[in-house]
């Protein structure tokens, strides 16, 4: 049916099928073929810069609706800034360290995890994180998010880790690092230290007393 033929049809009978499952990948393929992101950067290179370094998601699974909301809102900001006259760049990143990755690797290893040394375990964790960096990158691109997907920042990059070590050394040089004692929450199941935010306390009701004190002249 030609488009002009639809003008004479009742509104309810207009063809409404978007066929997005097929059309969206085709649109993304077209953007990639025409190097849309690179052309936008090149066109605006001399304009005032606006860079959004992404607060990195965790590289330990497929994206969910929270990831989608986060990335779409950031993409709106970048595209809005571009339309406002800025050279806007979105730099994605990933957090590649942490207990969930280690747990998943241990789960996949099963009893073999006791046979590996720390170096071997870290290598497997790195490979696991990298696999989900690649998976999540493809899933974010599928959302139509424009950004420097070929050059993201990863917390497990050796250069990134080296920068952390150098900055820590600066703290040491300025006498800001010391050794002391403090209570640390420890999980016997995970065999690791826990942050305060990771500790959930059981509900407990404590008695409370409200006492009224007269104010002195000085307090008034």
Question: Can you characterise this structure?
Answer:
The structure is a single chain. The protein has 220 residues and is mainly alpha-helical. The chain has a domain at 16-151: Rossmann fold (3-Layer(aba) Sandwich), CATH 3.40.50. The chain has helices spanning 3-6, 20-33, 36-43, 65-83, 99-109, 118-142, 158-173; strands at 49-53, 87-91, 93-94, 153-154, 185-187, 192-194. The protein has a two-stranded parallel sheet with strand order 1-2. Strands 3-4 form a two-stranded parallel ribbon. A two-stranded antiparallel sheet has the order 5-6. Strand 5 (185-187) and strand 6 (192-194) form a beta hairpin.
The helical percent reads 40-55%
Structural class: mainly alpha
Q: What would CATH call the class of the domain at 16-151?
A: Alpha Beta
Query: Which sequence of strands runs across the widest sheet?
Result: 1-2
Q: What's the gyration radius in Å?
A: 27 Å
Low-confidence stretches: 1-14
The mean pLDDT is 87
Q: What is the fold named in CATH at topology level of the domain at 16-151?
A: Rossmann fold
The succession of helices and strands, N to C, reads HHHEHEEHHEHEE
Give the CATH H-level superfamily of the domain at 16-151: HUPs
Number of strands: 6
**Form type:** extended
Question: Terminal Cα separation, in Å?
Answer: 85 Å
**Mind describing the biggest β-sheet?**
2 strands, parallel
As a percent range, the share of strand residues is 5-15%
How many alpha or pi helices? 7
